[in-house]
Each structure stands twice: as C-alpha cells, then as structure tokens.
Amino acid sequence: MRWFTQKGKTKDARKQAIPDRAAGSPGRALRYPRKLRDMAVFSMAGAMMFCSDLLLDALPNVHLIGMFTMLLTLTYRCRALIPIYIYVMLTALYYGFALSVVPYFYVWTVLWGMTMLLPRNISDLAAAFAYPLVCSLHGLIFGALCAPSQALLFGLNFSQMIAWIVAGLPFDLVHAAGNLAAGLLVLPLSKILKKISVS
Length: 199
Known about the structure:
By secondary structure, this protein is mainly α. It has eleven helices and no strands.
C-alpha cells in the first residue's frame, strides 16, 4: 500500500491512498505491541504462579504466590489483578472448583490491597524490610482470612471458627516463615520487572 499520493491525484484518490486505521495504521500499530506484551506477561505470570504452586505442593504452606502477588502489584498496580486471577482460575479448574479453593478468590486480593497501600516512593532500604514483612504478615493471617468462608461452607459457628483458626496456627507460622523468605526476592525482582515493563 502506498502511503503518499502523487501530484494531480483527486481528493478521492488521496483518501484511498490513506491506510485504514483498522487495518493497522502507524497510529494504531504503536499501541499494539504494549498490549500484546502485557497480555503475554500476565498470561505467563499466572501460569508461573500456578506451576510454582504445584512444584511446592509437597511442602505444606510454603509457596511463592505471595511473592509473585507483591511483585506484580508493585509493577503493574491495578492490572496485577489479571495474572492473580488467571492463577486463581487455573487452580480452581485443576482442583475441580473444590470448596478449599473458594478462599483463593479473595485472600490474594487482600495481599494485593496491602501492597497497593505501601508508599510508591519508598526507599530501597525501607522496601528491603517492608516487602518481606508484609508478605510474611499475610501468611500469618492466611488462616484467619480463610476462616469466614470455611465457616459458611461447612456450617461452623463462631466458637468453632475460632477453634479452627487456633488449630491452624502452626501451619500459619510455617506459612509466615516461608513468605518471609520469599519476600526477600520482591525488591530485586521488582526492579528487573519494572525495567522490562518500561522498555
């Protein structure tokens, strides 16, 4: 397709020579790579979260999902919910929408919200402490976050729900320790991902 017309062409001929924006003009083409790249990154991130969860399934309450959630949130902000829920849906499909997966539809959103509340201009020194601590805190309260849905699904009263939370505290402590270790990766990986996302 010719981008310019020769002198003497009529107005209609010049209009025909202008490329159709819907067919891929330069103005629209500049925006497509960014969208396609984000779609690819979000899809791969959701798949990586799911695969890492399966690989570490033998270790109770030890995983990288909290680290991935914070990493994606620090880089993509609100759009981080896309890969997070890709992971949730893959998990739900894999386990056949089991009742144990129901809390996944909101517990990771809590960590996303906690990360969104962190200052964006935080120093590296403060971030080196804050990111692992936030990640660890989410692991510590994970059982308490899951408790309301479990109580509704299994018909537990308030005292039974509290007993369920207390019984799971040892697992929550393991969860917190694992998240603390994984949270140490958030700062260095977020720097790398931010550079890639703006390039």
